[in-house]
UniProtKB/TrEMBL annotation:
Residues 237-260 are annotated as: Disordered. The lineage of its organism: Bacteria, Bacillati, Cyanobacteriota, Cyanophyceae, Nostocales. This is Transposase. In the C-terminal section; belongs to the transposase 35 family. The keyword Zinc applies.
């Protein structure tokens, strides 16, 4: 079983200077290794319909830079630039691993076949984390201090203890707008991975309908108000952005303004994440199976409601809900969202509505709030409730083709 705990660091001024220097060196190494791969790709690709074998010769293909070839070349980097000798070897190798991952996702895609955009070079101040892939021994964690390679003991705020039996596999130092943080990846091989054997049924399933009027409405008619963290902080952010635009580029006052803006955005992100965690835990305490719509969140984030959709953070909430459900032994079911607001949750008949219609009234006598009716339909689809088949039988009692 793997867990990730994040703690705030209290490094000294000398340690902060070391971290900043290492981040800059890793950023340069990242850009250099990415440029090597781009040069290989540009020099070896050739459009067949635009290159004549008779009129021009074809140069021999160059070897593709790989993770292992670039890792072996780190010895030459350290020989030419002595500053890289101060960085642990595994930290530099992690930089090449990141280049390998982002480049392959662009050309080949991930395990599901989804490709990412063209990798970009990291500008100054755009590289924020240092990884220590080597396992940290228990004796390196003493009290409120953690010992890191070539750094020594760094003070951290141990706000929650590390569970017994878990070993620290990796550590990652991250520079955020407000402070330095360390993320510890913990593993315990004695704890088996959680296997969910829950079967969705009417008595153990809870349907949720996410929206912008309310963050979500459950099939039990519970409503969670949408906090609108970004909307509430928008006025302050506009003022800070105006101050930033007036500062002279390269000045110290501009750097201070950049930090103020970054801290404000970080606060909004932390508030949203805290709300998502609390909401997910509250839902998992109520039911063993949570059903939700399989929404195209990326598409909705490009519509006219983009700001409100991004402020709600449905994607992050569903990701947190799945992670917490896996550790709690619960099941998350995504259903087809087509027609959940238009169909009646009692008889299955279609009742057309516009976005302005917030109440569902059907000829069968059903009368629900629009979102509550959608949540009931989501629950029925997750458990395979035969509402639609009954409605078809009622409309065609002879059993013929309709």
């Amino acid at each position: 079983m793997r867990l990730a705990y994040q703690y705030r660091l209290r490094p000294t001024k000398q340690q902060i200077a070391t971290f900043e220097n290492w981040l800059e060196l890793c950023r340069r190494q990242y850009n250099y290794r990415l440029a090597e791969r781009f040069n290989w790709w540009e020099q070896n690709r050739c459009n067949v319909d635009r290159c004549s074998i008779i009129s021009c010769g074809i140069a021999p293909l160059k070897d593709k830079p790989s993770y292992y070839s670039q890792k072996r070349d780190l010895t030459n980097t350290k020989a030419l630039f002595s500053d890289y000798k101060e960085i642990p070897s595994h930290t530099l190798q992690d930089v090449i691993a990141r280049v390998e991952k982002t480049f392959d996702r662009w050309l080949k895609g991930d395990g599901k076949g989804f490709k990412s955009g063209r990798p970009r070079f990291k500008g100054k101040g755009r590289y924020h984390s240092l990884a220590f892939p080597d396992p940290i021994k228990p004796e390196h964690l003493t009290g409120k201090f953690i010992q890191l390679p070539k750094i020594g003991k760094v003070k951290m705020i141990l706000h929650r203890p590390i569970p017994d039996g878990f070993k620290i596999k990796t550590a990652t130092i991250t520079c955020k707008a407000d402070n330095w943080y360390i993320s510890l990846s913990l593993e315990d091989v004695t704890v088996p991975s959680t296997k969910v054997d829950v079967i969705p049924a009417l008595d153990n399933t809870l349907g949720i309908d996410m929206g912008l009027k309310s963050f979500l409405v459950t099939s039990d008619k519970q409503e969670v108000e949408i906090p609108r963290h970004y909307r509430k902080s928008e006025k302050k952010l506009k003022r800070l952005q105006r101050q930033l635009s007036r500062r002279k580029k390269g000045s110290k006052r501009r750097q201070k303004s950049i930090k103020r803006v970054a801290k404000s955005h970080l606060k909004v992100a932390n508030q949203r994440k805290d709300f998502h965690y609390k909401t997910a835990l509250c839902l998992l305490k109520q039911s063993q199976v949570i059903a939700h719509e399989n929404l195209n969140i990326k598409g909705l984030a490009k519509s006219m409601l983009a700001k409100s959709v991004n402020d709600a953070g449905w994607g992050q909430f569903l990701q947190i809900l799945n992670i917490k459900a896996a550790s709690a032994g619960c099941l998350i079911v995504a259903v087809n969202p087509n027609g959940t607001s238009q169909e009646c949750s009692d008889c299955g008949a279609t009742v057309p509505k516009t976005l302005a219609d917030r109440w569902h009234s059907c000829q069968c006598g059903a009368s629900y709030d629009r979102d509550h009716n959608a949540a009931r339909n989501i629950k029925h689809r997750a458990v395979g409730h035969p509402v639609l088949s009954k409605a078809r039988e009622m409309s065609n009692p002879l059993g013929g083709v309709t």
